[in-house]
Amino acid sequence: MKIEKILISQPAPPDLEKSPWRNLIGTYKVDITFFKFFDIVGISASEFRKTRIHFGDFTAVIMNSKNSVDHFFRMAKELRVAIPEDTKYFCTTESISLYMQNYTQYRKRKMFFGQQSFADLLEVMSKHREEKFLFPCSDEKQTEYTKALDKAKFKYTKAPLYRAEPKDLSKFNMKDYDMLCLFSPSGVRSLLHSFPNFAEKPSPVAAFGSSTQAALNAAGIPITIAAPTKVAPSMAMAIENYINGKPNEVPTPPKATASRSSKSSAKNSSSQITTTGRNGVTKTKSVFASKDKYRKLMEEKKAKSAARRAERAAEKARKEAEAALKAKENPQ
User: Fold this and answer.
1) How many CB atoms lie within 10 A of CB 219?
2) DSSP symbols for 150-164
3) How confident is the model at residue 307 (pLDDT cuts 50, 70, 90)?
4) How many Å apart are CA 42 and CA 77, to the nearest integer?
5) Which of 99-113, 119-133, 248-262 comes out lowest in average pLDDT?
6) pLDDT per position as a tens digit, 183-221
7) CA pair distance 239, 22, nearest whole angstrom
8) Could you tell me which residues are beta bridge partners of residue 274?
9) From CA 182, how far away is CA 34, in angstroms rounded?
10) What is the CA radius of gyration of the chain?
11) Residue 174: C-alpha distances to residues 4, 53, 152, 158, 177 (Å)
12) Upstream peptide bond of 20 is cis (omega within 30 degrees of 0)
């Protein structure tokens, strides 16, 4: 299918010539319409007070977007709360940590950030589990970020500071576009708000991010292009590959990322020592730095051993019962 017109659910970049979309527009002559499908509206101070969350009770703040940064400091100003200078900030990426300079003095000793994904940030946070984490976010009940935090067993408090309100999209005729690009679950909800029957006759859809893809799947809307992937880290690159007829690579599921993270955590929490026995055989043992991990591992081993013993006992009892029955049926 030839792609000539695309509707993108994001505002136009400040400098289109330096954006990833430049190549699609210049080389492939694609007509792109940028329009943000929803507005971010801040929660009022009076509404936030009902949550009984006090910023001063926390020693660390998790920032996963510029929206969370803006509304965290907005709320602090409206509540007339002074944020302690020794508060630690954990940002998803370095760009978000640099954005923090708009509100606070940038100090490397209190700014921490991941390399690329939220899973990377969780690895950094794992070294600071003693902190009391506050997570400024939208009013959504659960997101991919809260799921990741819960799975990693972090103790944190959600601070709903803003919400996404859908815009009226009725001015767009979806049949005029060869593809629709969505970047968030809020964009999906806005689409269905204006076009509740979109799933019946959907246009080709490109989805960025696992949470966006999950929202589309839940709505029964098929996904034509899924990003990011290893070969296409950006949506623009994924569409370019699609135009060139390259296969649409399936993105790595979130579980794989968590698995890599857990493997890395296990590697960091243990070391290995090599010993040589009397017979000259070399053995390698893992030495765990965390007592909790070692205790959990030992409990799992004991449970497996107990299960094996129970199976052997049951098998022995079964054989004895069969032997007794045969002896009863065939007395000598």
Assistant:
1) 16
2) HHTT--EEEEEEEEE
3) low
4) 13
5) 248-262
6) 988 999 999 999 999 998 888 999 998 788 989 999 999
7) 12
8) 284
9) 11
10) 27
11) 13, 43, 41, 36, 6
12) no
Instruction: Give CA torsion, residues 118, 121, 125, 131, to 10 deg.
Output: -70
Question: How far apart are the C-alpha atoms of 301 and 226, rounded to whole Å?
Answer: 41
139: which 2 tokens? Answer: 């009013």
Phi/psi for 203 (5° steps) reads -80, 160
**β-strand 270-276 against 282-288: which pairing, if any?**
antiparallel
pLDDT digits over 214-251, tens only? 899 999 999 999 988 888 888 999 999 999 988 665 55
| Amino acid type, 105 | Q
Name every residue whose Cβ is closer than 8 Å to that of residue 186 and which is 6 or more positions away in sequence: 37, 38, 138, 164, 166
Please check whether residue 98 is in contact with residue 119, taking contact to mean a CB–CB distance below 8 angstroms: no
Per-residue pLDDT band for 39 (boundaries 50, 70, 90) equals very high
Considering only CA atoms, which of 296, 241, 250 is closest in space to residue 270? 296
- The reply to whether the predicted model has a pTM over 0.85 is no
- 226-233: long-range contacts (C-beta < 8 A, 24 or more apart)? 226/250, 226/251, 227/251
